[in-house]
Design brief:
By secondary structure, this protein is α+β, with helices and mostly antiparallel strands. It is about 25% helix and about 25% strand. It contains five helices and 14 strands.
Amino acid sequence: MSTPEPPALPRARAVVEAVGGVFDTPVRTGSTNADLLAVAVERPHGSVVVTLDQTAGRGRLDRTWTAPAGQALAASLLVRADLDARDRGWLPLVAGTAMRDAVSAVLPDVDGTPRASRPIDGEPSRAPEPRALVKWPNDVLVDGRKVCGILCQVAPDGSVVVGVGVNLTIPSASLPTPTSTSLAVAGASGDAVDLADAVLSAFTTAVLEAVYALVDGGPAAEAVRSHVRATCGTIGRRVRLELPDGTVDEVDATGVDDEGRITIRDRDGRSRGVAVGDLTHLRYA
């Protein structure tokens, strides 16, 4: 039996090599994040590890992430930049927005009935919302279902590994959860390798450009934060919030503050920022 060839991914490779990064494409690996974390101190900024067959992926809150071989993208990007503490906190949000934009570019435009949303004040809005949105902090949803998860981890030298998992061509019957989707199910055309190359090249470009803007500061950095807020589909919704201590409540999500925290208003009208928590968007007819 012949050994499978690693995916070529020429567009993504070109993006990484243009910034001086190393581009690794193992045929199979346990975790691209673990692989990159292990060599991060030796690798330049912008390096990537990518596979279409990851066997031991992890997500936020230590959840497992599994997908059929050859039908999902697992990739990790190394970010080494002079970011202050606040901007490092924005990196997971930037990554989610970058992947939302990358996913949107491969989806067909579909004219549908505008979905109702629950605003913070006043009557329900009937304004249509984009097919692809970010659920704070960085889950990417298409038509309300999760297509991508993101996990950022700090390497021993202080650099950050940004890991992504994207469902590419998984059929609906094989999706891991009832609230998942894949690019193919959402109408994207092309095979897994083509979709992976398109998504990864766009994602990597957007994250690196946003990092440069955050380092520069000023209007460029504010433009990055504004774009994150504009693509965050959590803002303006009633959500179920589960905190690390097990507390669960229904609250209104009102915005993203300057620290990158989701701001919420509880049933008693009290407002605060939340840095860590698990959110579920609640639907209203």
